[in-house]
UniProtKB/TrEMBL annotation:
Keywords: Membrane, Transmembrane, Transmembrane helix
Comp. bias regions, Low complexity: 50-59, 65-91
Composition skew (Polar residues), residue ranges: 29-39, 93-105
Protein's UniProt keywords contain Transmembrane helix: yes
Disordered: annotated segments: 29-114
Keyword Ribonucleoprotein recorded: no
Parts of the chain that traverse the membrane: 6-24
Taxonomic superkingdom: Bacteria
Name of the featured protein: Septum formation initiator
Amino acid sequence: MWTLAVSLWVAIVIVGSAVTWLAIDRAGQQVTGRPSASETKPPVVGTLGPAPVASALPSTPSPSSPAHTRTPTARPSRTPSSTAPPSARPTGSGPTKQASPSTKTAAPAQRIETRTWTGSAGFVTVSCTGSLATLKGASPADGWSYERGDDSGDSVEVKFTNGGTEVQVHATCVGGTPQFHVESGSSADEVG
């Protein structure tokens, strides 16, 4: 009895810790605008084992249906589900066959890389999708103001000012990764 109580307590602590960690991680993403490690990985395409809707289909093929039907694969979601969504059902009435590894799949989605430049004037966050740069956010430090230039395209630009001091931050995408070029007065720094 005592072992059961300790095991139950340990399970509750593990679940509570996981839920707390997820809540803090999500809140941190909203504050910083940075994706978590799991969001920067390419999506997993395909399933392991038979499709969950296969048991709901009739086992005898009809004469007008093909010998096998390709089962659509749903993208993985962040929330567990006990049943497959209605859109995941195949349209044929015959038995299903899981796609083999040699079956062509859709091209993977382009990777989105986000980086933040931080300096005494403030910070600039830029995302790259291939060669497309997109300004995700900018904020001046105390005493500074800023102007947004180009928000997306081949490059983005933010200009910070504080009295007579000016700092210009330019970002471009090199190999799908944001690269920052900073100009302050007569000096220029290359920051990666």
